[in-house]
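Board notes (copied after class):
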Amino acid sequence: MSQQTRAADELAPPVSPPPNSPPGRRGGADGSPARNIGKGFLLKLGLVAVIDAVTVYGILSAVAVQQWAIVVSLVVALVAVNWAYFSKRALAAKYLLPGLVFLLVYVIFTAAYTGYVAFTNYGDGHNSTKSDAVAAILAQNEQRVEGSAAYPLTIVTQDGDLGFAIAQDGVAQVGTADQPLTAVQDATVDGGKVTTVPGWEVLDFATIAQRQAEIVDLRVPVSDDVADGSIRTQDASTGYVYESVLVYDEAADTMTNTVTGVVYTPDATGNFRAEDGTALTPGWKVAVGFDNFTRAFTDDRLRGPFVEVFVWTFAFALLSVLTTFVLGLFLAIVFNDPRVRGRKVLRALLILPYAFPAFLSALVWKGMLNDSFGFVNERILGGADIGWLTDPWLAKLSVILVNLWLGFPYMFLVCTGALQSIPGEVYESARMDGASAWRVHRSIVLPLLMVSVAPLLVASFAFNFNNFALIYMLTGGGPNFVGTPVVVGHTDILISMTYSVAFESGLKQYGFASALSILIFVIVGAISWWGFRRTRRLEEL
């Protein structure tokens, strides 16, 4: 091809497709760009459709339980998702919205809800509204009505829910624990007993025998009014009317025992309480102000253990950082010396404890330190009886040593990297000036090292301050204190104590646990802020 022809081709305008060509061919010879655009749109449409379906299901579920805050949040999220992915002006929102949603749900909402719960008595016995508590109290204090009619029972089930079917004045009625007795059409009644119920399965004798405990515990309300009582049975064949011995006076807001005449009035802690201090359970959720924050210091049974746990938490975090850093730095200095042979192999072996999952290592050490059949007592100490995990002080020592085993490889890696980043000319200049090896490390290496390592030491302190896995897996917080209202032990740190308060102390006390978690957040935040300020000063030196 001549130069003139090539120049003419370069200057020629691009050829446009014929105006009447099929739309699919406007994107190229085989229409692939158009098809790619169509696939992308369909993929986006399918993704949004799935999100919309899940969100609508969540909205309907929230409406069913009357959680209006969740309903509003989901509606806003639904509108935002559809706007972001279908509006041409919301290109940036398509990438920002998923992260913002997860930030709102898992960080902001969680933090805000924790703060709200911390100022309430939310927990076992106080986890619902006052109306729910009244209904539960009336239901739990029922006794059989003297002279009440005996109803031949038919045990039925529908979608896994047990129910009672009785015949009253020849009309079949069916109810469950959540649904009061309701008349049913087209049911069969034979000899005063219901034999078939449309839409319900009548249980045979073998199935009734297998579910005897569930049937005996079942109470079917007679009507929507809790005061009308319920149908209950002891033999799965005959039901009787049970009514509550307590009567709730809505106008006076009191609960009265019709047998003893004792009157219960609501108090500030969310319970109906008599003059002698006796309380009815369950209660309801109420605001308690700062009681959860001051309880650890005002409760005589909790003050001493809490202070000890508080001090031990700081000691554990500080000793963990100090011991792991000193050992890791020592090994890093040793294996940074080129005169040491086999450094690569030795370094790899030292990293092994860090490569093994920490919670599994804690479980292994728990078995090795067992005072009855552990490897340490039985093999290393020749059958000694040392309570590594049962004596308060030995248990704390064991926690520190095990954490040293788990943590020194990390500090070894960090310090090795920091040492290798120091130029060799620094060492040569110091030696030429006559500095000893100790003076070089103390006056030159360590200050340069701390500039890089200090922020990591602050992060390590924050991690160990909340090192729940080690405490929970190794000692479980034990050995436990005696006479405390919550389960708390000598090796518990604040985070493991919070977990115990929330889940392992008999009654779950979410309000108190939330207050402790906020206290932990404030402490860790303050120490981290102070530590990073000190780190900045090191960089300025």
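Comment from the instructor: The first strand starts at residue 142 and ends at 144. DSSP finds 18 helices and 17 strands in the chain.
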